[in-house]
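Quick one before lunch.
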Amino acid sequence: MSMKFKFAGAALVAVLGLGAMLGAAAPAAGQMDHMSMMSHAPDTRKLLDFPAPMREHMLSNMRGHLQALNEILAALSIGDVAKAGKIAETRLGVESPGAAACVPNSGTTDHSTHDMAAMMAKFMPEDMRALGLTMHESASEFAREAAKSQTGGDLKPALAALARVTQSCAACHAEYRLK
Ligand code: HEC
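Model of the heme C complex:
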């Protein structure tokens, strides 16, 4: 693995982690007790109690999301915009299997995906699904903009869409955690 790729990965983790840190509400100075000053700021994220198979499924999806993002950045770093767009479309976009739980009435024909998506849709708070949907839509938008930039367009709109993808990752991480 080259330094460049390692750097992209480290930068991503930093971006996502920082988002989560910024998202955690900072307590007013007066509210800070001795314990919280000694340990971490209180974790104010909403705690979700998902059934074990769903939790596993979701976290595995999440690791796939990060992997996909990493591969997108790696492709961009070598100028392979077409590949970056393809990864976004197939692994993060609204039509990707992992999006089924967040996309209303996604007409997935795969039964196991469909059943899990139905379960996820039942347990996920509406606001969380909305954040998920925004992430998947931004990934699809990145793919469209990447395709445009292929035919001589500017790459900036694609990068802006990609930034909205990571922004959605960070926003949801700041808001929710799993039991
Ligand atoms: C709709 C909400 C939501 C979105 C959007 C989201 N995540 Fe997550 N993700 C979560 C939650 C909740 C957890 C569990 C966090 C916890 O319990 O502390 C998580 C956990 C993870 C984990 C840890 C997986 C593990 O095995 O523990 C990774 C990596 C991750 N997300 C990456 C991403 C990336 C990359 C994106 C954006 C492309 C993303 N997530 C978008 C909600 C979301």
